[in-house]
TrEMBL record:
It catalyses: 5-phospho-beta-D-ribosylamine + glycine + ATP = N(1)-(5-phospho-beta-D-ribosyl)glycinamide + ADP + phosphate + H(+). The lineage of its organism: Bacteria, Pseudomonadati, Pseudomonadota, Alphaproteobacteria, Acetobacterales. Pathway: Purine metabolism; IMP biosynthesis via de novo pathway; N(1)-(5-phospho-D-ribosyl)glycinamide from 5-phospho-alpha-D-ribose 1-diphosphate: step 2/2. It holds the Pfam family GARS_A. The gene is purD. This is Phosphoribosylamine--glycine ligase.
């Protein structure tokens, strides 16, 4: 098969590594890719959301399957454009991608399908939104209704903090069009986990679960980020519990999407809160998470390529999808200054030495080659160091051993990834 993978982050490098192992692969193109994916296929300098150029590339290269990585090309209509061109795509239509593109749409689906979730209201004007939080009090959750690259959620611990978030989104437009309307929710409490499944129509096949570490600082302190590391599986969320959550929170959504004439096809990423009353949905994302994908895909035992093809052609119920019972840990190395103004241009060395350690893999995200051919930092989250092990403790020790091998003076990372899971008996 000739495959076009869309994206440039650590998630896409992990996906490219899994696809490249397939005996069914004839050629792999990555648009735009990164220095890590360049070793696995052919990088093409096309932006991930440039749908016309991506479709033109797929036609020119006789692509058999388009695999979207991030959400941006999906909410730009990549799957629809591929369908119009007769090119299979392992991702949802624009209408189905509204599960991630609109928080209020997801809430409407949950209400229609009787999926447990937080109580909510949507606001298009600032005055009633402010009045609502003053009446309800805090803690309370403020969400930009549209896509905000992982930065559109504020868990406000006070009414003043909630008011500031509403003004920033709706008045100052700090998130652009994404925050012109907001969803305000009750604040759920418990452990947050991420559940992943391949989906096609009403069929869902479990991939697994992971637990992200969102904040920049140890002990879950400091600003939210795109994710600083993950463990898989989460402590206390075994496969039987994951299957039950799929029945409760994902399959009813798929049935409702089919009922509406907008069936979902792709990877679903359900963010859950494990409350005292059972799991409740926080949000849906319509793709793999990052860095959760890295932690999950290094546990993959079966061939990813035919699984993705079965998502695209609707034969998912016959797919062979197997993951190991090992534990895995992913640790993000970010540039100094992230998530504010990350330092760029610092030289990164000895990635190969880290990747040579038992059970360790290193995935590129914000990297590039300079004029001298040296690998340098070119983003906020720059590398993800991952490892597997028979226990969480072993996987964690291996991952941090990999981090220690890499030479990059500007690197910052959390030193407590997986500590909470270990304390919980993971």
């Amino acid at each position: 098969m000739r495959v076009l993978l869309v994206g440039s982050g650590g998630r896409e490098h992990a996906m490219a590594a899994a696809i490249a192992r397939s005996p069914r692969l004839d050629a792999l193109f990555i648009a735009p890719g990164n220095p890590g994916t360049a070793a696995l296929g052919t990088n093409v300098a096309i932006a991930a959301d440039d749908v016309p150029a991506l479709v033109a590339l797929a036609r020119a290269e006789r692509i058999d399957l388009v695999v979207p990585g991030p959400e941006a090309p999906l909410v730009a209509g990549l799957a629809d454009a591929c369908a119009a061109a007769g090119i299979p795509c392992a991702g949802p239509s624009l209408a189905a991608a509204a599960l991630e593109g609109s928080k209020s749409f997801t809430k409407e689906i949950c209400d229609a399908a009787r999926i447990p979730t937080a109580k909510w209201e949507r606001f298009d004007a600032i005055a009633p939104a402010l009045e609502f939080v003053r009446r309800r009090g805090a803690p309370i959750v403020i969400k930009a209704d549209g896509l905000a690259a992982g930065k559109g959620v504020v868990v406000a611990q006070s009414v003043a903090e909630a008011e500031d978030a509403i003004r920033a989104m709706m008045e100052d437009e700090t998130l652009g069009a994404a925050g012109r309307s907001v969803v305000i929710e009750e604040c759920l409490t418990g452990d947050e986990v991420s559940l992943f499944a391949f989906c096609a129509g009403e069929t869902a096949v479990l991939i697994g679960a992971a637990q992200d570490h969102k904040r920049i600082g140890e002990g879950d302190t400091g600003p939210n980020t795109g994710g600083m590391g993950a463990v898989s599986p989460p402590a206390g969320f075994d496969r039987a519990t994951q299957d039950a959550a799929l029945d409760l929170l994902v399959r009813p959504m798929l049935a409702e999407m089919v009922r509406r004439g907008t069936p979902f096809r792709g990877v679903i990423f359900a963010g859950l809160m494990l409350t005292e009353d059972g799991p409740k949905l926080i949000e849906y994302n319509v793709r793999f998470g990052d860095p959760e994908a890295q932690a999950l895909l290094i546990r993959l035992q079966s061939d990813l390529l035919p699984a993705l093809a079965s998502v695209a052609d609707g034969t998912l119920d016959a797919a062979d999808i197997r993951f190991s019972d090992e534990h895995s840990v992913s640790i993000v190395l970010a540039a100094r200054g992230y998530p504010g103004r990350p330092a760029a241009g610092g030289v990164i060395e000895d990635i190969e030495a880290a990747a040579a350690l038992p059970g360790v893999a290193v995935f590129h995200a914000g990297t590039r080659r300079d004029d001298a051919g040296r690998l340098v930092a070119a983003g906020g989250r720059v590398l993800t160091v991952c490892a597997t092990g028979a226990t969480l403790q072993e996987a964690r020790a291996r991952a941090y051993g990999g981090v220690a091998r890499i030479r990059w003076p500007d690197a910052v990372w959390r030193r407590d990834i997986g500590v909470r899971a270990l304390r919980a008996g993971g």
